[in-house]
Amino acid sequence: MRHFILSALGEMFRGGTRYRAWIACLVVLFLFGAWGYRRQLQEGLVVTGLSDQVSWGLYIGNFAFMVGIAASAVLLVIPAYLFHRGDFRRVVILGEGMAVAAVSMALLFVLVDLGRPDRIWHGIPLLGRLNFPASLLAWDVIVLMGYLLLNIATPFYVLYRRFEGRGPNPSVYFPFIVLAIVWAIALHTVTAFVFSANPARPFWHHAALAPHFIVTAFASGPALIILALRAIRRLTDFRVGDGVITTLGRILTVTMQINLFFIGVGLFTDFYHEGTHALSARYLYFGLNGLDALRGWIWAAIVMNGVATAILTLHPLRRRRWFLDIACVLGVLGIWMEKGLGLVVPGFIPTPLGEVFEYTPTFIEVAVSTGILAFGILIFTLLTKAAIGIEAGRARR
């Protein structure tokens, strides 16, 4: 075991000039975020754009998006282990590494959103008092921590067995695979419930939010995985089969189409017979009382999603590498904009008292978010480097 861990660590930090420059760049961005968080700790949340009226912003929007990225790892797990696709089995470890990085970022985004982070221990299972099962936040902590452990333990076992030159025993890991699949759906469902269980926020308080969350997860996740696999195939000697990209592209096409359907259904429900419950949606899409900070943001997101869906739906375009890459980038950005600030902030506008108080992220929030994103990419890079080294046989007992 000790030799396995040391070999994996050695593989993580072994590389050429380009790899070291990439790691250094991520470390610099992380330190930039740490500087921003230090400012936030010193001066308080007053350095953010948050207020009593809008208490969730960029951090919680990024949290919701990252939970979806984490849940999407099952789209590699299901073909690999349930349908016995050998090409998917080669890359499933990379998807689980992305899940670990995404959950880590999600937890950090919640941490930096706390005014008193020193009290985070209250939310740690077996250490703090979670107020379980009454609190939905307690459920969210449990599913996040459980999913993180599942996506660490299963790849660890598989890679350790391959490091020893032996194949993994299905009777050992398969039950955890099935549990992880169910857990991934529960993960994003519980996250949606954190929003939809607020009757005072009609913008979130509807039954379609949970399935919409899952659809956006299964759209943005495959798009990001496709981009990552293309980069890995181009920059390393690790073989990624074309069948993996093709299958993920088909999944992405269907989920992007369903996402547009959900957006259309929401617009119809809010505006066909518009009432006071639709004020948040009116603010988001058209502005309210002359205030429209998010109007351009959400329409840009819809245009990105629409263009990405059109490219993916037209098969001749989707088969072309660059068009698929463009669709993936637009899909990830569009869903991040829609599911981040486009979902979180309008839920607070107007307030239950009818106040319209806009929110704009500050430089400190952008800096902290950049640092967390760099930290997550660094985790994914290091885990991928170690996994590829073991899979390629460079690290063996």
UniProtKB/TrEMBL annotation:
<feature type="transmembrane region" description="Helical">
    <location>
        <begin position="296"/>
        <end position="315"/>
    </location>
</feature>
<comment type="similarity">
    <text>Belongs to the NrfD family.</text>
</comment>
<feature type="transmembrane region" description="Helical">
    <location>
        <begin position="21"/>
        <end position="38"/>
    </location>
</feature>
<feature type="transmembrane region" description="Helical">
    <location>
        <begin position="91"/>
        <end position="112"/>
    </location>
</feature>
<keyword id="KW-1003">Cell membrane</keyword>
<dbReference type="Pfam" id="PF03916">
    <property type="entry name" value="NrfD"/>
</dbReference>
<dbReference type="GO" id="GO:0005886">
    <property type="term" value="C:plasma membrane"/>
</dbReference>
<feature type="transmembrane region" description="Helical">
    <location>
        <begin position="58"/>
        <end position="84"/>
    </location>
</feature>
<keyword id="KW-0472">Membrane</keyword>
<feature type="transmembrane region" description="Helical">
    <location>
        <begin position="366"/>
        <end position="388"/>
    </location>
</feature>
<dbReference type="InterPro" id="IPR005614">
    <property type="entry name" value="NrfD-like"/>
</dbReference>
<feature type="transmembrane region" description="Helical">
    <location>
        <begin position="209"/>
        <end position="232"/>
    </location>
</feature>
<feature type="transmembrane region" description="Helical">
    <location>
        <begin position="322"/>
        <end position="346"/>
    </location>
</feature>
<protein>
    <submittedName>
        <fullName>Prokaryotic molybdopterin-containing oxidoreductase family, membrane subunit</fullName>
    </submittedName>
</protein>
<feature type="transmembrane region" description="Helical">
    <location>
        <begin position="172"/>
        <end position="197"/>
    </location>
</feature>
<keyword id="KW-1133">Transmembrane helix</keyword>
<keyword id="KW-0812">Transmembrane</keyword>
<feature type="transmembrane region" description="Helical">
    <location>
        <begin position="132"/>
        <end position="160"/>
    </location>
</feature>
<feature type="transmembrane region" description="Helical">
    <location>
        <begin position="244"/>
        <end position="268"/>
    </location>
</feature>
<dbReference type="InterPro" id="IPR054823">
    <property type="entry name" value="DsrP-like"/>
</dbReference>
